[in-house]
UniProtKB/TrEMBL annotation:
Domain of life the protein comes from: Eukaryota
Residues forming coiled coils: none
Species the sequence originates in: Carpinus fangiana
Main subcellular location of this protein, as a coarse class: secreted
Annotated protein name in UniProt: S-protein homolog
Species lineage: Eukaryota, Viridiplantae, Streptophyta, Embryophyta, Tracheophyta
Length: 129
């Protein structure tokens, strides 16, 4: 095998492994399920280890903010809605296991987690000053 063909094989193998690794990372969905006439909610999420900030997103009722985890590590989100604020662990590898999708619903009484969009569990509440 020539040096050129070995190099090509290595590049292809590296690309394949990189694709598999990124495909294994879960996708997180954050849905604004607040009442239709509510003011928008601001959501900002980050990775804990790399501190990768995924940006500030303003959601209106029914909007969905979707992102893929930047690594298989804790990801947390912060939200502000009028005079209310909250933070929660959007991705917790020990809790979320091998689920490829993690769903969050933001409601006026708190934050709900699901892996199938059918069974929801409240995991947090709003705070106020």
């Amino acid at each position: 095998m020539t040096t050129w063909s070995r190099s090509l094989c290595l590049v292809l193998a590296w690309t394949f492994v990189g694709t598999l690794a990124s495909a294994a990372l879960p996708t997180i969905y954050v849905t604004d399920a607040l009442p239709a006439n509510s003011e928008a909610v601001n959501v900002e999420c980050s990775s804990q280890r790399t501190r990768t900030n995924l940006g500030l997103h303003t959601l209106k009722a029914g909007d969905v903010y979707r992102f893929t985890a930047v690594e298989n590590d804790l990801h947390f989100c912060r939200a502000e809605w009028g005079r209310y604020f909250a933070s929660w662990h959007a991705l917790e590898p020990s809790r979320d296991g091998n689920h490829k999708d993690v769903y969050w619903k933001i409601k006026n009484d708190g934050f709900y987690l699901s892996w199938d969009k059918s069974h929801w569990s409240r995991k947090g509440e709003w705070e106020t000053e």
